[in-house]
Amino acid sequence: MKAIVIIGAGHAGLTLAREIRSQDKAVPVTIINQDPVQAYYKPNLSKALAMNKSPGDLVLKPIMALKRDLNVNIIEKTRVLKIDSEKNTVHYLAKEVEGENQTSFGLEYQSLILATGASPIELPIKGAAGNVVSVNTLQDYVLFRELIETKKRVLIIGAGFVGCEFASDLSGQGYEVSVVDRSSWPLQAVLPEPMGEEIKQTLSNKQVNWHFHSTVEEIQRDDQGPLNVQLSNKTIIQADVILSAVGLQPNTQLAMAAGLNTRKGIVIDEHCQTSAHGIYALGDCVEYNGQPLPFIAPATLAAKALAKTLTGNKTRLLLPPQPVVIKIANCPTLICPPSSRKGAREGKWQVKGSGQDLEAQYVSTDNEFCGFALLGKKTSLKGEFLSRYSSCE
Question: Can you tell me the distance from the alpha carbon of 109 to that of 88, in angstroms, rounded to the nearest whole number?
C-alpha cells in the first residue's frame, strides 16, 4: 500500500501525522524533512530565556519517540529534489555522507502533503553575510544562544511579532537591546498607535532602545571587535549580535517546479488541496482565500480537517477568528488582525481606555467590524470581542 507522504516535519507536518493516526491506525505515513526531526513548540523560541530553558529543554520528543508514538516512517536530513505529479512520485536524495556519492530515490505516494513552511526574508544589507542571524527553527535557536552566551548587546531588525517578543525576552535577562524598524511604532501593521506606544514604553523601561523610521544600511566588523551598524539616518550602533526578524517567505519552490498554482504561497482550496489532484498543503507555506496562514492555530485546524479528508471523510477547512497572544512581559497583548476577507482594505482603528488598559476595534469604510486588539487588563474581554467578531462573519 502506498504511503501518505508529508514533506516537512515542523508543527504542521507533525500535527498532521498525529491527526492522521488518530483517524487511521494502519495507513502508512512517511515524513521527509531536510533538517533533523524533533518535536518542539516553536512559539517558545522567543521566550525560552524567560522560561529559563536551554534549547535542549525545548525538545518535546526526539525522532525515535516520534516514530514510535506516531507509528510513522521519518526520513530526516534529506532533500526532496522534485515531485512527479503524473506518476505520484517524490524524488529525494539519500542522507549526505561525506566523501561518498549521493544517491537519489523515488517514493510513490497515495497522497502528498506539502508542509514546507517558510524561510526568513534576507535583506540586501551590505556586510550582512555572516553577521546577521534569523531564528526560525530550533536549530537556528541553538546557534543564536551560542552567539549571545557571552555577549550583551543585541540589535534586532524588525519591530513586528517576533522582534518584539525577542526584545522582551532578551531585555528581561539583562541584554542591551536595540530595535530598528522603518515603521513609526511597534507592531504598526496590526496595532493602532496608542497601543504601539504603550508597548514601546513598556520595553523602553526594560532598556530597549528603539530606532524607528530607519533601516540598516551597512554592517562592519573590525577584527574580532563589535559590529558597527550604520542606519539610514546615519546613526551608528554597536552590537555583538544582530538578529533579523523582518518576516518569513513561504517555501514554494517545490510546488512551483511541480507546476502547482502559487502566488503569495501555495494556493489551496477549502479542502487544503492544491491545483494538482492528490497533492495538499498546509502551514506557513500556503495561501488560502488570497492570504497566507501564519501562526500555530490555523495550521492545527488545517491538520485536523485534512487528516479527516485523507482518511476518507472529506472535511472543509473552517477558520474562525483566532486572536494571537504577543509575549511581552508586563504588557499583556492580544491581537486579532484585521481580516482582508471582511473588506478591511480601507478602514480605521477605534481605541478606548487609558494607560496600558486599551481596547481597539478595526472598522472598515463600510462600517464592518474587521478585527480587534486588547492590551493590559482589557485582554479579559477576549470572549466578548470574539463573540462580536464572529457575529459579523
Answer: 6
